[in-house]
Every structure is written in C-alpha cells, then in structure tokens.
Amino acid sequence: MGIWYRLQVSKNQHGLYALAYQMLGNQLEAEDVVQDTFIKLWQRKEQGGEFEKAWLYKVTRNQCLDILRRRKHAYEYQIAQAVGSDVSPSASDEVLNEELSGEIGKAINQLEEPYKSLLVMREVNGLSYQVLADSLDLSLSQTKVYLHRARKQLQESLEKTYA
C-alpha cells in the first residue's frame, strides 16, 4: 500500500491543493485540507474501500465548504500592492498581469457553488466532465450546463469590471 499511496499523493496533490486554495484563499488551510484528504484516502483503502479520483475531489471540496461555513463570511482574494511610478516597463507589465489575475480570482470567488468548484476543477485542474460529475454528484448533462453558466457568469463579471 505504501507505493500505491505515494503514487496517489504524487499524482493528485497539486490539483487538490489548487482546488482547496482557490476555495479558501489561504495556503495553510489548503495544505491542511489536502493532508486530511489523503489521510481519509489511507483510511478508506485500509478498510477495503474503492478509490476513484472523483472521490478525492469530492472530499476536498466538502472539507473546504465546511471551513467556509464555519467562517460565515466569504474570503477575500489579495490584490498586488500599488507600485511607485519609477517601475520599469517589464515590472509594470508584471503588476498589470497580477492585477488581472487578482480580478479573475475575485470574480471566481464571487461565483456561487457549484459554479465556483466546477470552474476551478475544470479550468485549473483540467479534470474531465465525468470526474466533475462524479465529484459533485451531478449528471453529465448538469455538469456541462453548470460549467457553461459558470463561464458565462465569470465573463459577465469581468466585462462589468473592464467596461
């Protein structure tokens, strides 16, 4: 089981962390959630339970939702600090990219569930539609419709910001 477990950690830790971090906006909490998810995987395998990639994402998402419920408020996405006027062009381009990333992250954070989770799991982690459906207990067609709505809401939010 040791090799199998290390392989699962190696293959899935970055995607799970990206989901947890996007949902929580906190590095330490995201790391804790991922660690707890892998502990649950270990326990599940020890008890003879089956492993599915979708199960990992479902556990991670549910743990994040629990944390957000306990907070009772939405988390804030941090935006880059304002820089002085004596910044070189390449540095100012970098700041603009950081600000744009911040605005995209902010717009994603404003999405309701399950839109937020679907968008992160598909666009950041590149998960298949079937894995998304299994992770969120949705049908494949519901998953596609919700993901379409999530993209549309994100696009409308960004258009308002840059209109």
Automatic annotation (TrEMBL):
Entry keyword Amino-acid biosynthesis: no
A Gene Ontology biological process term: DNA-templated transcription initiation
InterPro entries listed in its UniProt record: RNA_pol_sigma-70-like, RNA_pol_sigma-70_dom, RNA_pol_sigma70_r2, RNA_pol_sigma70_r4_t2, RNA_pol_sigma_r2, RNA_pol_sigma_r3/r4-like, WH-like_DNA-bd_sf
Gene Ontology molecular-function annotations: DNA binding; sigma factor activity
Domain RNA polymerase sigma factor 70 region 4 type span(s) in chain numbering: 103-154
Domain RNA polymerase sigma-70 region: 9-72
Origin superkingdom: Bacteria
SUPFAM superfamilies to which the protein is assigned, alphabetical: Sigma2 domain of RNA polymerase sigma factors, Sigma3 and sigma4 domains of RNA polymerase sigma factors
Keywords, in A-Z order: DNA-binding, Sigma factor, Transcription, Transcription regulation
PANTHER family reported in the protein's UniProt record: RNA POLYMERASE ECF-TYPE SIGMA FACTO, RNA POLYMERASE SIGMA FACTOR HI_1459-RELATED
Family: Belongs to the sigma-70 factor family. ECF subfamily.
Protein name: RNA polymerase sigma-70 factor (ECF subfamily)
Organism: Marinicella litoralis
